[in-house]
Amino acid sequence: ALPYSQALDKNYIDETNDSLINIAVDYYRTTDDVHSKFLAFYYQGRVYTNAGELHKAILAYTEAEQLADEVKDGYLVGLLYSEFGRIYRLYYDYPKSFEAHQKASQYYEQAEKETHRSYMWLNMSRVCRNMNQYDESERLLQMALLAGKESQDNVLVRLCLGDLLMQAVELQDMAKARTLHNELQTLVDSDWGTASFMGSLA
């Protein structure tokens, strides 16, 4: 039940029925297998997130969080806090969202998952933008942008440039927005939403 639930999630198949993962949760809850117990609660949370039952998801993730120190896997704990960050952002609890994404970035860095860490910087910047903390948002975006360029992650580069552009528009810094738009246009395909950025500038 656990490996199958994990395989579905890793292949972007959003399971919303908890009957399968609950078999794993019920079994591992009473065992000393900390790693599998952590995964069972984590993937239970993923199923509830897919189903839009965010309260249940937080309860499942909280169960997993209690095992974070014992599981000794920075990558898995990073995934967990990334999920916390996403849910808190959906609840508009931006301080908690920022804190969770920050923890995720730290765990990813410990696990030497630099790409995951860089995407957490992107998420943190978006939370800062939601709180009108534009200077901190830009600082984090520039960090993520530099990391994306160094690793040749064009998706991350595009996302960072797009966010920087939209932030410049919000702040009515049109000269900066045009410069960013020109840089973005050299990277994106014609069908990647360039029109929406042009509309925002207009």
What does this structure look like?
This protein has 202 residues and is an all-alpha fold. Helix content is 78%, strand content 0%. The chain contains twelve helices and no strands. Helix 6 runs antiparallel to helix 7, helix 7 packs antiparallel against helix 8 and helix 8 runs antiparallel to helix 9. The radius of gyration is 19 Å and the shape is elongated. It starts with a helix and ends with a helix.
List the helices and strands and how they pair.
Blueprint: H1 2-10, H2 19-28, H3 34-50, H4 54-65, H5 68-71, H6 74-90, H7 94-110, H8 114-130, H9 134-151, H10 154-170, H11 174-185, H12 194-201
Features:
single chain, mainly alpha, 202 residues
Radius of gyration (CA) equals 19 Å
Q: Assembly type of the shown chains?
A: single chain
Structural class: mainly alpha
Q: In which range does the helix fraction lie?
A: over 70%
Shape assignment: elongated
The largest pleated sheet is described as: none
Q: Which sequence of SSEs, written as H and E, runs from N to C?
A: HHHHHHHHHHHH
| First-last Cα distance | 52 Å
| Low-pLDDT segments, ≥5 res | none
- The mean pLDDT is 92
Number of strands: 0
Question: How large is the share of residues in beta strands?
Answer: under 5%
Summed up:
This protein is mainly α. It is built from twelve helices and no strands.
